[in-house]
Specification:
mainly beta, Immunoglobulin-like, 6-stranded mixed beta sheet
């Protein structure tokens, strides 16, 4: 299912900053990709917990009734491409206090039931209670972690996993929109990075880069996930800073729900890279974004949130090691 525009889901409260390590009714993994196990892959860890072991009322990303029965069942994963078109989905069994690992490369290249349409496709994943739907909220308490693996475990980079509220569709604060057995839209308002919600607003944040040519050499990609596709983010103005506070203005394109930006003077768009930043770069610094893509009028804003982070490769002579750095959020202005 395509989710081309943001809806009012989650509109009752505003995001403050990306939450990590907290539970959700459902989970958003904002960047999932595989070129096959042993080449480029994503590993996902999911823990389903009994309410007897969690102070449920403490967390604003848990809703509804959680019981020892509701945490036994099946989880449903949905993989979407950069434009939020569903590519694949499936379910798997969980029990209370269970851990399940998902090896996306192995799933995609399963010789019994391969999914070639998901190979070399940058996308994102939503995991929720298989029992959740239009009129039923998730009964699960889920924790998650994810890692991007390059080569044969040559390096692994942490991918942030964002908890989601998945109550019945149309209820206040719901962040997962279902259409029958499928997920149509997600908007991580409570646990994501706040974005512009109405006209005249802009979300300001910065992302670090490291591009040193000699040892330890560096390379950088930016990952930006939004709850919608939006042409307002074409020719997005940015400020590229070096390490000495000097800024040069430039542009990039981030119109998709998932945007993977190659950063470097020789960066090129390709199947896994959706845009580039080539101008004004130094050995190291940061890029400042001011994204004015609010979808609601000034007097009736629609709360929205996303996720952004850098994947910074550092080669110290023993192979490239990729590190993850979350965006530095400066607020909606």
């Amino acid at each position: 299912m395509a989710a081309a525009v943001a809806t009012a889901i989650g509109a009752s409260s505003a995001a403050y900053a990306v939450q990590q390590g907290t539970p959700g009714d459902a989970l958003l993994i904002p960047y999932v990709v595989t070129a096959g196990a042993g080449r480029l892959n994503t590993m996902i860890s999911v823990v389903a917990v009994s309410p007897a072991n969690v102070n449920v009322g403490q967390f604003n990303t848990l809703t509804g009734t959680k019981t020892a029965e509701s945490c036994n069942g099946r989880l449903h994963w949905f993989f979407f491409d950069k434009e939020s078109n569903e590519v694949a989905d499936n379910t798997f069994a969980v029990t209370c206090n269970d851990w399940v690992g998902l090896d996306f490369g192995t799933i995609v290249e399963d010789p019994a039931r391969p999914i070639p349409s998901a190979l070399n496709v940058p996308g994102y994943m939503v995991i929720t209670d298989n029992a959740a739907g239009d009129t039923t909220g998730s009964g699960m308490i889920l924790y998650g972690a994810a890692y991007q693996i390059r080569g044969n475990w040559a390096t692994q980079a942490y991918i942030p996993v964002v908890p989601l509220v998945d109550s019945a569709d149309g209820t206040v604060g719901d962040e997962v929109d279902h259409v029958g057995a499928f997920v149509a839209n997600v908007n991580p308002v409570k646990a994501g990075m706040a974005l512009a919600s109405g006209q005249g607003q802009r979300a300001v944040f910065s992302l670090r880069y490291y591009l040193k040519a000699d040892a330890p050499a560096g390379d950088t990609e930016f990952v930006l996930w939004f709850p919608d596709n939006n042409a307002a983010r074409v020719n997005q103005n940015i400020l590229v800073y070096d390490a000495d506070e000097r800024a040069i203005s430039a542009t990039t394109n981030v119109p998709y729900e998932l945007n993977v930006i190659g950063v470097g003077a020789d960066a090129k768009e390709g199947r896994l890279i959706t845009a580039t930043i080539r101008d004004g770069l130094s050995e190291t610094g940061f890029v400042a974004f001011g994204v004015a893509d609010g979808v609601g009028p000034a007097n009736a804003p629609t709360s929205r949130a996303g996720v952004a982070f850098s994947l910074i490769g550092v080669n110290g002579g023993n192979g490239d090691q990729t590190q993850t750095e979350l965006a530095h959020e400066r607020g909606v202005q």
